[in-house]
Design brief:
The chain has about 525 residues and is α/β, with parallel strands linked by helices. It is about 40% helix and about 15% strand. Strand 3, helix 6 and strand 4 form a beta-alpha-beta unit. Helix 2 packs across helix 8, helix 4 crosses helix 5 and helix 13 runs antiparallel to helix 14. Keywords: 4Fe-4S, Flavoprotein, FMN, Iron, Iron-sulfur, Metal-binding.
């Protein structure tokens, strides 16, 4: 189960389309079709563009929701102060398994995204455009779109534009990771917090936002703030792109005006009439109970007031026939495996939190629940990027949203429902978590319970109440191979061994290979 979503799922619209205009005509809008559907777009001075973004209350649609006008002005002011050309970056690294809206735009309406990015680049005087992607389909679509516009990374060009391809990892979608990779480094957060508006690609002030944000900017620039504001809510005008998955009959990307009841959105996707819970905002988002979800509307303010989050626009209901804590555990384990391995709160804290949630599900009692809460509190606001914070918030929301199920697991024998794997996850193992072909084994005849091994490789070994490791052997992923070898070297009792995993070795032939003709097995 936990089947991954396709790159481009079904796309539907409520009301009049804006971002998805023309999707009923062709599968992908090339430049000619794009201009027929949307028309030309005139350049706009920087301050006028900022006022437009402010007038339509445009916020980043990648999850953080930062005001775009404020970001645009910050980049322009930094570039003027330093006397350097800024850079524009489109973040299309949509690697969360529950999100596909940016991927749909890059595949089906790439020129609408480029319209917004080029409009911003012209307004602030940028001469470099970078489009970050992680999928074969989005890379091919964006390279084709740049070629259709005659844009390239050629020296001397008025605007140098290129596609930056990164691996599919949750952390590669973090803004600092994309900037680092665009400079030739690894696609991982750098471990220090520097605002992109001050120093981004090549050290230059960088305007970075996700694909939907630039597409929304292009729509607003074409139709104007007044017409844009006629759709949706007064304080959150326009449309919203949502990705519907989980316990639905038809996973889809849906364009809806803000203010549409969430229950109507769920009905369109074929969700259960009364879902047990609805995860809003994706895997860094928050759970709503079934009743609360039916009272919410699609808007940032409404979802936050109900205890949820709009985030990156992912909506995932689950039905009454599955264990919500078990479903969340699978996600927590995936989030832990997506760690960049660069800071303790992420590399050590997230696996510990996933194990803590597993202990709660397995009847660990109030002690296990309190230990889980302590771990999540320790993880938050201490990481090198936002991944630990978002993952910890997801676990905290899980244990708060399902009190009856939590009580059944903590105080009794569990809720009695199976885990059906309805929440989508990537099918392949993330980079760094693939098996190394080795296992870490404990020799009980030598172990004296010093506990150093659990300090060095807590993701593989942990101590029981008696102070000894709780497992005799553990498979070692590649990301932990170096630490496992270190644990072996530092064990005072020499009780650890790093062995080849028999399951990973090629099978031996049943018979010895035949000798060449004329040779004898007898010793001469």
């Amino acid at each position: 189960m936990n089947t991954a979503l396709p790159d481009v799922p079904e796309v539907r619209v409520v009301g009049l389309p804006q971002l998805t205009s023309g999707f009923d005509l062709v599968e992908r809008l090339d430049l000619d079709m794009h201009l027929k559907v949307h028309g030309p777009l005139e350049p706009m001075p920087g301050e006028r563009l900022a006022r437009l973004a402010q007038a339509v209350s445009l916020r980043g649609r990648g999850g953080a929701g930062f005001p775009f006008a404020k970001k645009l002005r910050a980049v322009a002011e930094s570039a003027i102060r330093r006397g350097v050309r800024p850079v524009v970056v489109v973040n299309g690294s949509e690697d969360e398994p529950a999100c596909r809206k940016d991927t749909v735009l890059l595949n089906r309406a790439p020129h609408l995204v480029l319209d917004g990015a080029l409009l911003a680049a012209e307004a602030i005087g940028a001469r470099t455009l970078v489009v970050g992607v992680t999928r074969d389909s989005t890379e091919a679509s964006m390279r084709t779109a740049l070629a259709e516009r005659g844009l390239s990374n050629r020296r001397g060009a008025p605007l140098r534009a290129r596609v930056q391809r990164n691996p599919v990892r949750m952390v590669t979608g973090e803004s600092s990771a994309l900037i680092r990779s665009a400079d030739g480094g690894p696609p991982l957060p750098p471990g220090r917090k520097v605002r992109a508006s001050d120093s981004g690609v090549g050290g230059a002030p960088t305007l970075l936002s996700n694909a939907e944000t630039f597409a929304q900017l292009a729509v607003a620039a074409r139709i104007g703030a007044e017409r844009y504001g006629r759709t949706g809510l007064h304080d959150e005008p326009g449309t919203v792109l949502l990705t519907l998955s989980g316990a639905v009959a038809r996973p889809m990307v849906l364009e809806v005006p803000s203010g549409v009841p969430l229950r109507y959105v769920l009905q369109l996707a074929g969700a259960p009439p009364l879902p047990q819970g609805v995860l809003t905002g994706g895997y860094h988002g928050k759970w709503l109970d079934g009743v609360g979800a039916l009272d919410a509307i699609v808007s940032r303010a409404s979802l936050e007031a109900c205890g949820g989050a709009l985030g990156a626009g992912a909506i995932l209901p689950i039905g009454p026939d599955t264990c919500p804590l078990g479903e969340s555990l699978k996600v927590a384990q995936w989030l832990a495996a997506e760690s960049a391995g660069q800071c303790g709160p992420c590399y050590l804290g997230l696996p510990a939190a996933a194990r803590g949630l597993e202990d709660v599900l397995n009847g660990g009692g109030p002690t296990a629940l309190e230990a889980l809460r302590e771990v999540t509190r320790a993880v938050k606001r201490r990481g090198a990027c936002k991944h630990p914070d978002g993952s910890a918030a997801f676990i905290e929301s899980t244990i708060a949203a399902f009190p009856d199920d939590l009580a059944a697991h903590v105080l009794g024998g569990g809720c009695g429902r199976p885990v059906r794997g309805v929440l989508p996850l990537h099918a392949q193992a993330p980079a760094g978590s693939s098996p190394s072909g080795k296992r870490l084994a404990v020799d009980w005849t030598l172990c004296r319970g010093h506990g150093l091994c659990a300090d060095i490789v807590p993701e593989l070994l942990r101590l029981g109440p008696d102070g000894f490791p709780t497992v005799a052997e553990a498979e070692v992923p590649r990301s932990a191979e170096a630490n496992a070898a270190r644990a072996v070297r530092r064990c005072p009792a020499l009780a650890l061994r790093l062995e080849e995993d028999p399951a990973a070795l090629p099978p031996r032939p049943l018979l010895p290979p035949a000798l060449p003709p004329g040779r004898s097995r007898a010793r001469r």
